[in-house]
Amino acid sequence: MNFRLGVWLYVLCFSWVMMNSSSGMAFEPANPPGSQLIDSKKTEPAQMRGFGQVAAKGWLWQDGKERFSLVSFTCQDTDTARILGSKYLEDLLAYGAVSLVRASPEIKGTMLQVRHGGVWLLGLNKNEVYVATAATAEKLRTCLAGWQNAVWQDVPRLAYPRYL
């Protein structure tokens, strides 16, 4: 899968979250300091080929011109979350404008620098896959304590079946 398809998957999933929302989210991340929640949505689980049952939740905040987002994909189990996260990571890295960057030790997860697109942080926690975004790593760092980042794990590379 190429980068466009990977970005399309992210946009599609976030749009799906926004359009197919319902109330009652279990995990409610804290607002980044100084920001306001613009929108939050949740989807019902759907069967996805190769990934099993997946539900998504999304949050979007704004602080002046800065925006922060968090999307959580809830998978049917830990193994499926690992596959989904790994495939998503590899699809992003297949595009030349995305590179792995070393996050500071207090940031848990796999950080990506997206040329003209800020930083993205991918993380795993049990059966959850998280995708967090901000303009810079410093801005993202201000959000993470309220997003339970201390328990996130790195997303492994190439840990998915090649037919996906």
Your description of this structure?
The chain is of the alpha+beta class. It is 25% helix and 34% strand. It has 3 helices and 8 strands. Strands 1, 2, 3, 4, 5, 6, 7 and 8 form an 8-stranded antiparallel beta sheet that branches. α1 crosses α2 (78-93). The termini are close together.
Summarize this, please?
This protein has 164 residues and is an alpha+beta fold. It has helices at 3-19, 78-93, 137-144, and strands spanning 36-42, 46-48, 52-63, 66-75, 98-101, 110-114, 118-125, 128-134.
Radius of gyration: 15 Å
Helicity level = 25-40%
How many strand elements?
8
Strand content: 25-35%
What summary fits the major beta sheet? 8 strands, antiparallel
Shape label: globular
The helix/strand class is alpha+beta
Give the SSE string: HEEEEHEEEEH
Distance between the termini: 8 Å
Mean pLDDT: 82
| Number of alpha- plus pi-helical segments | 3
Low-confidence stretches: 1-25
SSE layout and pairings?
Blueprint: H1 3-19, E1 36-42, E2 46-48, E3 52-63, E4 66-75, H2 78-93, E5 98-101, E6 110-114, E7 118-125, E8 128-134, H3 137-144
Antiparallel strand pairs: 1-3, 2-3, 3-4, 4-8, 5-6, 6-7, 7-8
Helix pairs in contact: 1-2
Summary keywords:
164 residues; alpha+beta; 8-stranded antiparallel sheet; 3 helices; globular; disordered N terminus
